[in-house]
Automatic annotation (TrEMBL):
Segments passing through the bilayer: 6-28, 66-85, 136-156
Any single Pfam family the record assigns to this protein: KdpA
Protein source organism: Alicyclobacillus fastidiosus
Record keyword Nucleus present: no
Protein's name according to its UniProt entry: Potassium-transporting ATPase subunit KdpA
Cited InterPro entries: KdpA (IPR004623)
Superkingdom classification of source: Bacteria
Keywords: Cell membrane, Ion transport, Membrane, Potassium, Potassium transport, Transmembrane, Transmembrane helix, Transport
Length: 189
């Protein structure tokens, strides 16, 4: 290994540590209910979203309720993507007149992207319309990672729950992780 290569590796490790420690602290504050630096911007946005979807952020869930909500959301998202992929030939933003996927390929693709494995058994732009790429594939690349993240948060909470049985509120966590991704960008942009 060259000296430049070693310096590059050390630089990457230093950047990860420099960003990872403050980001980890920020995530801990957000998901443990403590104050964070973006609360003035994020809290009003979250409040609007909570009211819009009818979520009471003070209600806590046990693991069964949390898992049920997570599975319901993932099943709904997978079904939505499956339908989009099957009927993409009839939908707009399809200038190449790409036909809908077969049932097994659409199921495989939806299952792959909902589990965030992103395995592609098709030829991207030759098998997917613009709408399918935007509303199905890109959508799941973002939201499946968010549901995986909140599942990890719930698991960590369950480790420290001290037999209380509650691990948070799935809907609150899902809104927070989506809002978490957008609020810092709103301040910078």
């Amino acid at each position: 290994m060259t000296i430049a290569g070693s310096i590059g590796i050390l630089a990457v490790i230093a950047i990860i540590l420099a960003l990872g420690i403050p980001l980890g602290g920020y995530l801990y504050r957000v998901f443990s209910g403590r104050k964070s630096i973006f609360d003035k911007v994020c809290a009003p946005v979250e409040g609007v979203l909570f009211r819009a979807v009818g979520v009471d952020p003070s209600v806590q869930m046990d693991w069964k309720s949390y898992l049920r909500a997570l599975m319901l959301v993932n099943f709904t998202m997978m079904l939505f993507v499956y339908v989009i992929l099957r009927i993409q030939g009839f939908l707009p933003l399809n200038p190449d007149h790409i036909k809908g996927m077969s049932w097994d390929l659409a199921f495989n693709t939806a299952a792959s992207f909902i589990t965030n494995t992103n395995w592609q058994n098709y030829a991207g732009e030759q098998s997917l319309s613009y709408l399918s790429q935007m509303s199905a594939i890109t959508y799941l690349q973002f939201t499946s990672a968010a549901t995986g993240f909140v599942a990890a948060i719930a698991f960590l909470r369950s480790l420290v729950a001290h037999r209380s049985g509650v691990i948070g509120n799935f809907w609150v966590d899902l809104i927070k992780i989506h809002d978490l991704c957008s609020c810092p960008q709103q301040l910078v942009g």
